[in-house]
């Protein structure tokens, strides 16, 4: 975020929002952590006071010049998209057509298309071109109230091209009022030059890419794609060992197309999240729960691939695994630009409740990124990331399709 967006800290409260229907998303109390007729006061970048408008200390309000009367609007935490691949070159509309002519995602991948075709387009794109192609994708997300977004590498698959992708994500962060966390996903696919030698590619990921990315502080976490068309749990374990050498948290694309037990392996190693997990066996959910790992559901990929195997939602609920929801925005399996649409799909396709879906893009998405101390709920001490919506009911955010009721966004205390 550029410095001029930070409000001067010359009064105890820089901003006060009043008369909100506030979904704090603080768990275990009212549904949605709802406070009626609520007020929120902000000092600098941080939430300083939350409560009933009627209880707002009068002296603080009198001294504050930035006041906003929410007029009964719903206010939520800023939305968090905790799993995206929005930095990439080209697109895969032709594969969309091929799938409609009968080819499967795996068949296209095995025939040299899929992720590898985006790798070609990403490698050939300059830094500036990648930035220019990715920026509108970020802006579309921000328009819908996203204040934190995770961006993965994984379409470069050489040391230099992975670094190029992560630097584009860092540049997007430097020039836009949104929190961006970066995840190194070198173990996303076997690049053509390593065809038949996936172990050799894992050597490159572990011995060169992770050290370079860590030394340049380009990634907040390390991810991998554990699947028959990508990497085995044993190979991913090597990637996770290398991540541990640099104290980088881990996450995993696991059990998207088959049950390789990647999620169990990742959870046992303390992964922040396991993502997709349609084929995660209900009996394995206890292991995910015991290790405090979040489950990230990606209804856009489920929908686009016309998957029919549902993630083990009831087992996740029973074991109280934090369930996050994300866009998985990528050119192949989830060309999605709307996190609000994911709320609807999480409810319609996965039968999450609107409260679970909203928690999935706020509180639990923060957990999936290891950012729950900073954001994800409206609580004193957290970042002042807030959205006022032109709706009154929290369920309206997941009920409507194709409308964007975002009215006003506060990002770390500054109006966006
Ligand atoms: O999360 N599953 C692997 N990776 C992406 C797909 C990327 C692509 O098809 O380009 C995903 O769905
Ligand atoms: Fe993904």
Could you walk me through the main structural features you see in this protein, from its secondary elements to its overall organization?
- The protein has about 425 residues and is α/β, with parallel strands linked by helices.
- It has 16 helices and 16 strands.
- The strands form 2 sheets. Strands 1, 2, 3, 4, 5, 14, 15 and 16 form an 8-stranded mixed β-sheet that branches. An 8-stranded parallel β-sheet has the order 6-7-8-9-10-11-12-13.
- Helix 6 links the parallel strand 7 and strand 8.
- The longest helix is centred in the middle third of the chain and has 18 residues.
- The N terminus is likely disordered.
- The structure holds N-(iminomethyl)-L-glutamic acid (NIG) and fe (iii) ion.
- Fe (iii) ion binds next to loops.
| Averaged pLDDT | 95
Question: Outline, from the CA principal axes?
Answer: globular
What distance lies between the first and last C-alpha atoms, to the nearest angstrom?
11 Å
Fraction in beta strands: 15-25%
Catalogue the unreliable spans.
Answer: 1-9
> Compounds present?
N-(iminomethyl)-L-glutamic acid, fe (iii) ion
Radius of gyration: 21 Å
How much helix is in the residues?
A: 25-40%
**Helix count from the secondary structure assignment:** 16
Q: Give a count of the beta strands, DSSP E runs of length 2 or more.
A: 16
């Amino acid at each position: 975020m550029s410095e001029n967006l930070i409000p001067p800290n010359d009064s105890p409260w820089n901003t006060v929002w009043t008369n909100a229907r506030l979904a704090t998303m603080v768990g275990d109390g009212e549904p949605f952590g709802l406070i009626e007729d609520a007020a929120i006061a902000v000092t600098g970048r941080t939430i300083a006071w939350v409560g009933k408008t009627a209880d707002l200390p009068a002296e603080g309000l009198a001294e504050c010049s930035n006041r906003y009367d929410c007029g009964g609007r719903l206010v939520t935490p800023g939305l968090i998209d905790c799993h995206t691949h929005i930095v990439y070159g080209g697109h895969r509309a032709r594969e969309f057509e091929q799938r409609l002519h009968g080819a499967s995602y795996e068949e296209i991948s095995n025939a040299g298309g899929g992720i590898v075709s985006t790798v070609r387009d990403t490698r050939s794109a300059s830094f500036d071109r990648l930035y220019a192609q990715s920026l509108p994708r970020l802006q579309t997300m921000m328009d819908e109230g996203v204040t934190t977004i995770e961006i993965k590498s994984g379409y470069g698959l050489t040391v230099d091209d992975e670094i190029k992708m992560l630097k584009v994500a860092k540049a997007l962060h430097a020039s836009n009022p949104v929190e961006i966390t970066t995840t190194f996903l070198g173990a996303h696919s076997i690049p053509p030059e390593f065809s038949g030698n996936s172990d050799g590619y894992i050597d490159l990921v572990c011995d060169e890419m992770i050290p370079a990315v860590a030394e340049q502080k380009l990634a907040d976490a390390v991810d991998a794609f554990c699947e028959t068309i990508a990497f085995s749990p044993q190979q991913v374990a090597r990637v996770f060992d290398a991540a541990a050498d640099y104290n980088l948290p881990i996450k995993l694309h696991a059990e998207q197309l088959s049950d390789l037990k990647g999620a169990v392996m990742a959870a046992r190693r303390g992964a922040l999240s396991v993502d997709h997990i349609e084929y995660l066996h209900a009996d394995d959910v206890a292991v995910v729960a015991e290790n405090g790992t979040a489950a990230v559901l990606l209804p856009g990929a489920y929908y686009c691939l016309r998957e029919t195997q549902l993630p083990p939602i009831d087992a996740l609920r029973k074991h109280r695994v934090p369930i996050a929801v994300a866009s998985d925005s990528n050119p192949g399996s989830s060309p999605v630009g709307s996190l609000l649409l994911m709320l609807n799909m999480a409810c319609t396709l996965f039968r999450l409740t609107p409260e679970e879906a909203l928690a999935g893009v706020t509180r639990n998405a923060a957990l999936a990124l290891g950012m729950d101390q900073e954001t994800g709920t409206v609580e004193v001490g957290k970042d002042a990331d807030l959205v006022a919506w032109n709706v009154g009911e929290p369920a309206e955010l997941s009920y409507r399709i194709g409308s964007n009721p975002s009215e006003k966004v506060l990002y770390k205390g500054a109006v966006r």
